[in-house]
Amino acid sequence: MYYEAVSVKYIRDYLLEVAFIDGTKGIADFADYAKRGGIFSDLRDIEFFKKVFINPDFGVLTWPGDIDIAPETVYTKVTGNPLKQVV
């Protein structure tokens, strides 16, 4: 998958450095996810947020309890570019 994440590193606060299978790498702020509530409520706890890892089967950012963010969404946050539309 083009947007598959291959590594993630906690920087500080809600900043994560993410690298993708295509060589793209960058830092994105995920504070907006901590504010969403619902399934993302646990991310408000910064110690929990730091437990982020890559699910090796799907290349997605994942937290304990099967909380994850789709790789294409993360790619957009990291690059600041919208995804290309496939028709």
Give the SSE layout.
Layout: E1 5-12, E2 15-20, E3 25-29, H1 31-36, H2 46-49, E4 53-55, E5 60-63, E6 67-69, H3 71-79
Antiparallel strand pairs: 1-2, 2-3, 4-5, 5-6
What does this protein structure show overall?
By secondary structure, the chain is an alpha+beta fold. It contains 3 helices and 6 strands, in the order E-E-E-H-H-E-E-E-H. The protein has a single domain (5-79), classed as NE0471-like N-terminal domain (NE0471 N-terminal domain-like). 22% of the residues lie in helices and 33% in strands. The mean pLDDT is 92. The protein has a 3-stranded antiparallel β-sheet, covered by helices on one side. The chain has helices at 31-36, 46-49, 71-79; strands at residues 5-12, 15-20, 25-29, 53-55, 60-63, 67-69.
Concise structural overview:
Helices cover 22% and strands 33% of the residues. By secondary structure, it is an alpha+beta fold.
Query: Could you tell me the mean pLDDT?
Result: 92
The amount of beta strand, in percent, is 25-35%
Low-confidence stretches: none
Name given to the CATH architecture: 2-Layer Sandwich
Enumerate the strands of the largest sheet in spatial order, edge to edge or round the barrel. Answer: 1-2-3
Task: Return the CATH topology.
Answer: NE0471 N-terminal domain-like
Written as H for each helix and E for each strand, in order along the chain, the element string is EEEHHEEEH
Count of structural domains: 1
- Please report the first level of CATH classification, the CATH class: Alpha Beta
Task: List the defining traits of the structure above.
NE0471 N-terminal domain-like, 87 residues, 33% strand, single chain, alpha+beta, globular, three-stranded antiparallel sheet
